[in-house]
Specification:
Elements lengths: L2 H14 L8 H20 L4 H24 L1 H11 L13 H15 L2 H25 L3 E3 L2 E2 H20 L6 H19 L7 H19 L5
């Protein structure tokens, strides 16, 4: 392939890739659906939490290897983009994609946190991340950080709050401690997403920091025994 042909081909690939500021609904649907399927298997298939953590860690390592191969071999990169392009961002064309960070964040949560908190932290990633992005892109007029808006942060808070509230209502005895835990967990979830403004992938920060925050919170407002 000549230089001009390569440039034209790369230009056509760029048209498939989305910018971070794009609504990119297909990526959000993929994000939610794959995470939901993973959560279903984790909660339904009788295997240990460490088993699932190892499985997802292997997926993460595979994703990092693929990104290294893409960076080293342009032809391999073009093949991957041709297949996965509709789900990718332009920033991922020459760099790391979100997949390995997504899997790594889930894996670390499963490794280090007790079952209920691990599930909640993964649910924050699966649902809060795309929903806060959705509302931030559509209605985010008040910027509080680079690429982060007040509207997106509020959407993230309410998503994490409601997830925690409904989950705890179905798994522990009812009481005021559930409401307190859910509100603070919502704040923790929203803040864990904002940390990604410092060039840290939110697929990693949301589950890891949310799980850590809820683990500490559970010592003061005990919900999960």
């Amino acid at each position: 392939m000549s230089v001009s042909q390569t440039q034209n081909y790369d230009s056509s690939l760029d048209k498939v890739l989305h910018k971070r500021s794009d609504l990119h609904l297909l990526r959000k649907v993929w994000h939610i659906s794959t995470g939901s399927i993973g959560l279903y298997f984790f909660t339904r298939v009788p295997q240990s939490q460490q088993f699932w953590a190892l499985i997802v860690l292997m997926i993460a390592l595979g994703g990092f290897v693929m990104d290294i191969v893409r960076a080293k071999y342009p032809k391999a990169n073009r093949v991957v983009i041709r297949i996965m392009g509709p789900l990718m961002r332009r920033s991922e064309k020459e760099g790391l994609s979100g997949l390995p960070f997504y899997a790594l964040g889930v894996s670390l949560s499963l490794f280090f946190y007790e079952r209920d908190i691990a599930i909640l932290s993964v649910m924050f990633l699966v649902f809060s991340d795309p929903l806060s992005s959705f509302f931030g892109i559509l209605y985010g007029k008040d910027k509080i950080m680079p690429n982060k808006s007040l509207q997106g942060a509020v959407a993230g808070f309410f998503t994490c709050y409601l997830i925690t509230l409904f989950y705890t209502m179905n798994h522990v005895d009812l009481g005021n401690h559930i409401l307190i835990f859910s509100v603070v967990a919502g704040v923790i979830g929203a803040l864990s997403e904002l940390v990604s403004a410092f060039n840290i992938d939110d697929n990693l920060t949301i589950p890891v920091l949310s799980g850590l925050g809820m683990t500490v919170l559970n010592h003061f407002v005990t919900v999960f025994v």
